[in-house]
């Protein structure tokens, strides 16, 4: 890619288009895969955000809203649905009585492991398609 102020070349546009196509292809794969396993894409993202939360195995709804880039009330509904399906559970927050911890259940861990393995394998298969343009 060119530096700021320089016009983009045909090669730059091709690299950007290839990268965008790779992102969209991966997202489509993800959406179809998680739906095929009975989850919504948002539920998979919730499980992944919980398992991948730095330095602990739980997160608050506020933290999840930030990670998922959703409104607090949307995450509450998402957690409610996931809890109803046995994927997550709630527990008392260790330091804030107004907040709760959201944790994966054993079922949530199992489903996430299966789906994440498929996602990792797809990323490997895609190879350079998701390499950002330089």
UniProtKB/TrEMBL annotation:
Superkingdom of source: Bacteria
Gene Ontology MF: a single term: DNA-binding transcription factor activity
One Pfam family matching this protein: MarR_2
Entry keywords, A to Z: DNA-binding
Sequence ranges assigned to domain HTH marR-type in this UniProt record: 9-134
Gene3D superfamilies: Winged helix-like DNA-binding domain superfamily/Winged helix DNA-binding domain (1.10.10.10)
SMART domains on file: HTH_MARR
Name of the molecule in the record: DNA-binding transcriptional regulator, MarR family
Protein species of origin: Lentzea albidocapillata
Taxonomic lineage: Bacteria, Bacillati, Actinomycetota, Actinomycetes, Pseudonocardiales
């Amino acid at each position: 890619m060119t530096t700021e102020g320089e016009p983009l070349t045909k090669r730059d546009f091709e690299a950007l288009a290839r990268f965008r196509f790779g992102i969209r292809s991966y997202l489509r794969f993800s959406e179809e895969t998680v739906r095929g396993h009975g989850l919504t894409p948002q539920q998979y993202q919730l499980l992944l955000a919980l398992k991948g939360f730095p330095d602990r195995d739980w997160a608050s709804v506020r933290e999840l809203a930030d990670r998922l880039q959703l409104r607090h009330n949307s995450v509450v509904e998402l957690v409610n649905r996931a809890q109803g399906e046995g994927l997550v559970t709630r527990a008392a927050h260790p330091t804030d009585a107004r907040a709760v911890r959201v944790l994966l259940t054993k079922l949530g861990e199992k489903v996430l492991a299966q789906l994440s393995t498929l996602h990792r394998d797809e990323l490997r298969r895609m190879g350079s398609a998701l390499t950002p343009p330089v």
